Amino acid sequence: MNRIRFGRSVRELRERRRWRQEDLGRRAGLSRSAIGRIERGEIGRVPYDRLVSVASALDGVLDLDFRWRGDAMNRLIDERHAAIVDQLVALYRAARWDVAVEVTFSENGERGSIDVFAWHPIVQIVAVNEVKASVVEAGRTVIGVDRKSRLAPEIAKERGWICRGVARFLVVAEGSTTRDRIARHADTFRTAFPMGGRESLGWIRNPTSSPPSGLIFLAPRNVRGVGIRRKSRATGAGRPAIPRTVSRTDDV
After folding, report:
1. Tens of pLDDT along 62-91?
2. In sequence order, what are the residues at sequence separation of 6 or more whose Cβ sits closer than 8 angstroms to the Cβ of residue 82?
3. pTM above 0.70, yes or no
4. CA distances from residue 51 to 7, 17, 80, 150, 178 in whole angstroms, order as listed
5. Cβ atoms 235, 219 nearer than 8 A
6. Which among 51, 74, 113, 208 is placed 20 to 30 Å from 38, CA to CA?
7. How far apart are CA 33 and CA 17, in angstroms?
8. Could you tell me the sign of the dihedral formed by the alpha carbons of 100, 104, 109, 110, in that order?
């Protein structure tokens, strides 16, 4: 995050609303002097959640931008994501599902894409799979899966798939950091995805007419790692409230 640019952006948006620093501070839960320091780019001692509050008060969104070895971080994340997608597609095809990857949609003004969209011609169930190399925000992740699952019957219809139910899976890269993040929001994830990883993988291999909602951890295979050592075993997850120590990939 560019501190100076963030400070200037805060000042410009505040002045556009004709707010004083006191006005913004009251909305963000900060003092006038703290707002002044932020606008000058002096944010070293300001907690991140306070900066988020300032951005939110101005109808903005604050994102951290972590860079590593130029574009290597983006390549690493993309490779992890692609490796998980490849494993998931192979699993579905082995179980005789029809599979499509990166299925874009535009339904009633809602746009997006489904990472892995699958249909079983016997039970006529579709499966929405949201693949994450890492989980950053619990609420936004769950909402994204909910939205795609709600639109899934129409998306399936456009592909000529008869949809008698929608299974939904959040598939994330195995790693201690990811497990810790999910464990911190265990109630949220357990409510949204009550089926564990092994059960979810078992259902995919032998689907029934009762579509589940599950959370699956997969260790990405064949990731070159951009200089980071990787292990190569895939695992199914248990419930998110109990992070397990297993063979896993190292997190970034």
Report:
1. 776 655 554 444 555 567 888 899 999 999
2. none
3. no
4. 10, 18, 30, 33, 24
5. yes
6. 74
7. 19
8. positive
